[in-house]
Specification:
The modification 4-aspartylphosphate is found at residue 60. The chain has 132 residues and is α/β, with parallel strands linked by helices. 46% of the residues lie in helices and 20% in strands.
């Protein structure tokens, strides 16, 4: 079962992403462990407890202290195997900066079910491919 971190300082955005992931679960018979965080600092604190715990991170970029990009770069320092998806309302010109964290995808708000479906399909396909 995948462990998925959702990090956004706005509760409504976390709730929306949570609902889209649950819809994917219903449509595909999949199950995920979802964890919500409201700041980069909070997610880094949990990440530092076990650097391989999360398989997938959904990160908003503009948060109060650490940005999503800063958070992703801290995660990448210790884990290059996990998947990072930026979920942002930021200008598309920031896409180049996001590439420093080797993201799986950059999504722009408002989120769409089909975008979440594609990401979860990719991550699950990778997990199945890792099994002997």
């Amino acid at each position: 079962m995948l462990n998925i971190a959702i990090c956004d300082d706005r509760p409504i955005q976390r709730k929306l992403l949570n609902l889209l992931i649950h819809e994917y679960e219903e449509q595909n018979g999949a199950r995920f462990n979802l964890y919500e965080f409201e700041s980069g600092e909070e997610i880094i604190e949990k990440f530092d407890e076990n650097k391989n715990f999360f398989d997938l991170f959904f990160l908003d970029n503009f948060m109060k202290k650490l940005t999503g990009l800063q958070t992703a770069l801290r995660i990448r320092d210790d884990n290059i195997a996990c998947h990072i998806v930026f979920v942002t309302a930021s200008d598309k010109q920031l896409q180049h900066a996001f590439m420093a964290a080797s993201p799986l995808e950059i999504l722009f708000k408002p989120l769409q079910q089909e975008d979440i479906n594609k990401i979860l399909d990719k991550v699950l396909a990778g997990k199945v491919g890792e099994r002997p």
